[in-house]
Structure formats: C-alpha cells, structure tokens
Amino acid sequence: MPVILPGETELYALTDSRLSLGRPLEEVVRALLGAGIRIIQYREKRKKGGEMLEECRLMRRLCDEYGACLMVDDHVDLAMICRADGVHIGQEDIPLPDVRALTGPGMCLGLSTHSPEQAREAVRLGADYIGVGPVFATQTKEDVVAPVGFEYLDWVAANISLPFVAIGGIKEHNIGDVARHGARCCALVSELVGASDIAAKVEAVRAAMRAGMTRG
Questions:
Q1: Confidence band, pLDDT 50/70/90 cuts, at residue 20
Q2: What is the percentage of the chain residues whose pLDDT exceeds 70?
Q3: Does 73 score more than 90 pLDDT?
Q4: What's the pLDDT band for 143 if we cut at 50, 70, 90?
Q5: Catalytic annotation on 120?
Q6: Residue 141 known to be catalytic
Q7: Bond prior to 95 in cis (omega within 30° of 0)
Q8: Which of the following is catalytic: 38, 60, 100, 141?
C-alpha cells in the first residue's frame, strides 16, 4: 500500500506507554486506527530493544489490518526489521543521508525542524516530510527545544513545498489555531493516547481542526 504523508490525512498519532492510562499497546493502537487515524508513529524512549521490536511488529500487523502507515521514531534498525513504512528522525539523530543509505529509496523519511534553515536543509537532503515544532511547550519529550510558536509555522506554510506535520503541545482546545496558521496535519500524543475514550477524542479533535481550517 502507498505511504500516507502528512496532509493526505489530518491527524498523526504517536504512542507513549507512560501516558496511556496503563492500557496495553494493542488496545490503544487499535482504538486509534479504528477511529480513523491513518499515520501512527511508534515512539517509546525507555524500553529495551527486544520489547520495542515486538511492539513494532504488533503495530505493523495492526496497520496492515487497518490500511494505515507505520512510522518508527529514531530507530532505523527497528523500522527496517518490522517493515515499517518510514522513520522519523531528529536534528541530533543519524543524519538523513545516512539513514537513506540504510533504508534505500522506498522508506519514507521524516525530519524534525525548528527553524527556516533546518527546513531548507531538509528539502536539500531529500526528506519526504518535515515536522514543524514544537508549536507549544510540551512535556511528552525529554530535551525538547523551546517552542517555535506560530511564526515558524507561518513561514513553513508559505515557503516550503514538502508535506509537513505540526507537533508539540497540540490539544483539542488549540488545534483550530494551529490549522488557521496553515497546518493541514497535526501530531498529537497525550491528547489521544491519554484519553479515556480514544475514539470520541479523535472525533472531537478532528472536528476542532476542521473548524479552524474553515476560519483560516
């Protein structure tokens, strides 16, 4: 199945077992996919490699079942072993050209960016999409950079042709503002995986984002 890119779907979900109310990964991921999420990233920072691999394989099976795109955060080896659709890397991870050399041309590569210079470099290096953020302050990631606010988001929307996903502190109450500043895909972590009713939360977040688009 073709890779789904940001902009081809509105919401991009990320996993985080610490925020999932103690529920098993399969329950959380199945709820997200059943609610219409079409891009989901495996992001776990404090687990052993073997456990992460088994969880990635589980998510591969679930994404195949629902026709969704599986991205893996940082871990190129896990992505390749479990046949993920892509890898998302940060500015301090393995450089994108080296990741591409490992994965070959068929895997989608996303790169986090925090400034116009980084966005231009991502285009030059051949990223398939970029992450733009953190838009707001976030506690879901350690060693996170300072929020970039709407100024950088506005710049990307006006100047970068690559697909992009806005990320960082995005919630139901502010996603409409993010959409009004040009985001056509938003990544959420705690707002989705930490919801008591994931399907209802996905529906509410999607409605809030679409309302923001119509007012943008």
A1: very high
A2: 98
A3: yes
A4: low
A5: no
A6: yes
A7: no
A8: 141
Q: Which CATH entry fits the domain spanning 11-109+168-215: 3.50.50.60, 2.70.20.10, 1.10.287.110, 3.20.20.70?
A: 3.20.20.70
d(CA 50, CA 20): 21
Q: Check 20, 100, 112, 206 and give the catalytic one.
A: 112
For residue 26, give the 3-state DSSP assignment.
helix
> Of these residues, 43, 60, 184, 201, which one is catalytic?
43
Which pLDDT score, from 0 to 100, does residue 145 have?
A: 85
Domain limits of the chain?
A: 11-109+168-215
Phi, psi (rounded to 5 degrees) for 28: -65, -50
Predicted local distance difference test score (pLDDT) of residue 75? 97
Residue pair 99/89 in contact (Cβ under 8 Å)? The answer is yes
Is 43 marked active-site? yes
Q: Where are the alpha helices (DSSP H) in 47-130?
A: 49-66, 76-81, 96-103, 116-125
